[in-house]
Amino acid sequence: MGEQPIFTTRAHVFQIDPNTKKNWMPASKQAVTVSYFYDVTRNSYRIISVDGAKVIINSTITPNMTFTKTSQKFGQWADSRANTVFGLGFSSEQQLTKFAEKFQEVKEAAKIAKDKTQEKIETSSNHSQASSVNGTDDEKASHAGPADTHLKSENDKLKIALTQSAANVKKWEIELQTLRESNARLTTALQESAASVEQWKRQFSVCRDENDRLRNKIDELEEQCSEINREKEKNTQLKRRIEELEAELREKETELKDLRKQSEIIPQLMSECEYVSEKLEAAERDNQNLEDKVRSLKTDIEESKYRQRHLKVELKSFLEVLDGKIDDLHDFRRGLSKLGTDN
C-alpha cells in the first residue's frame, strides 16, 4: 500500500545554518505544503515537504524527537539522522498548534511501533535459541521421517531470521550511537544558542539604554528648539523695537535740524533784543525827563493858578497820553522780559 498522507498544512520552511548553528536559512521562497506520511509496511512516520522538484524536508519521526514552539507562529525540531534542525513558520497560531499536536500524536505512535518491533525481535531471538537446541538433539537422532524434515526447514528459517535480527540490532546500535552524537552536537548547539540569547539580551539592554539616551537627547533638542523659537520671537520683537527707535531717531534728527535752523536766527534775535533794550533805556530816560517836567509843571501850576485854569484841560490830556505811553512802555518791558526768558 506504500505511504499515505495523514495530515497536511502549509508553512515557510527553514533549516539551521550548519556552520554557525545559530542562524536560520530559508529552504523555500514561499509557503509550501508540509505533510505527515504513514508507511504501513514499515510502520513508520515521516514529515515530507517538496518545493517544486526539490525535497526540502524528509524527516522520519522517532520517539526521542521533540517539537518546540519558539514563538506564536514558529516551531522547530531536530533530526539527528539528517544532522540538521528544521523550522516552520505558519501564518497563524492555530496552524502551529495543530501541527504540534499532530507531531506529539505521531511521536507516541512511533514509540508504540518501536516497542512492538522490539517485542517481535525478542520473541524471534527466543525462538531461534530454542530451535538451535532442538537441532542439536536432531543430529543425535535419526534423520528419518517427514516431521524431522519439516522441523529442519523451520530451524533454517529461524536461523535466517536470527541472523537478520542480529544485523538489525547492530544497525540499531550504530543508529543509536549516531543519535547520541547528534544529541551531543544538538546540546552544544543549544548551549551556543543559549549563550547567543544571553548576548542578544545584553545587546537588547544596551540598545534599550541607547534608545532611552536618544529619547532624552531628542527631548533636550526639542527644548532647545523651543528656546530657539522663543529667541526668534524676541529677536522679531527687538527688530520691530529697533525700527520704531530708528523712526523716532529720524524724527529727532528732523527736529534737531529745525532747531539748528532756529539757532541761526538767535543772533538776529539777540541783535533785535539789544536794539529794543537800547530803545527801552532811551524810553526810560524820556520817561524820567517827562517825570521831571511833570514835577516842574506841578510847581508851575501851584505858582501860577491862573495858568492852571487855562492849561488844566491841556495838562489833563497830556497826562492821559503820558499814562498811555507809560502803560505801553510797561507792556513793552514785559514783552522784552518774556522774550529774554524764552530765549
UniProtKB/TrEMBL annotation:
<dbReference type="GO" id="GO:0014069">
    <property type="term" value="C:postsynaptic density"/>
</dbReference>
<keyword id="KW-1009">Hearing</keyword>
<dbReference type="GO" id="GO:0007216">
    <property type="term" value="P:G protein-coupled glutamate receptor signaling pathway"/>
</dbReference>
<dbReference type="InterPro" id="IPR000697">
    <property type="entry name" value="WH1/EVH1_dom"/>
</dbReference>
<keyword id="KW-1003">Cell membrane</keyword>
<dbReference type="GO" id="GO:0007605">
    <property type="term" value="P:sensory perception of sound"/>
</dbReference>
<keyword id="KW-0966">Cell projection</keyword>
<feature type="coiled-coil region">
    <location>
        <begin position="162"/>
        <end position="307"/>
    </location>
</feature>
<dbReference type="Pfam" id="PF00568">
    <property type="entry name" value="WH1"/>
</dbReference>
<keyword id="KW-0472">Membrane</keyword>
<dbReference type="InterPro" id="IPR011993">
    <property type="entry name" value="PH-like_dom_sf"/>
</dbReference>
<protein>
    <recommendedName>
        <fullName>Homer protein homolog 2</fullName>
    </recommendedName>
</protein>
<feature type="compositionally biased region" description="Polar residues">
    <location>
        <begin position="123"/>
        <end position="135"/>
    </location>
</feature>
<dbReference type="GO" id="GO:0005886">
    <property type="term" value="C:plasma membrane"/>
</dbReference>
<keyword id="KW-0175">Coiled coil</keyword>
<dbReference type="GO" id="GO:0032420">
    <property type="term" value="C:stereocilium"/>
</dbReference>
<dbReference type="InterPro" id="IPR045027">
    <property type="entry name" value="Homer"/>
</dbReference>
<dbReference type="GO" id="GO:0005737">
    <property type="term" value="C:cytoplasm"/>
</dbReference>
<keyword id="KW-0963">Cytoplasm</keyword>
<comment type="similarity">
    <text>Belongs to the Homer family.</text>
</comment>
<feature type="region of interest" description="Disordered">
    <location>
        <begin position="115"/>
        <end position="153"/>
    </location>
</feature>
<feature type="domain" description="WH1">
    <location>
        <begin position="1"/>
        <end position="110"/>
    </location>
</feature>
<dbReference type="GO" id="GO:0035256">
    <property type="term" value="F:G protein-coupled glutamate receptor binding"/>
</dbReference>
<keyword id="KW-0770">Synapse</keyword>
<dbReference type="InterPro" id="IPR044100">
    <property type="entry name" value="Homer_EVH1"/>
</dbReference>
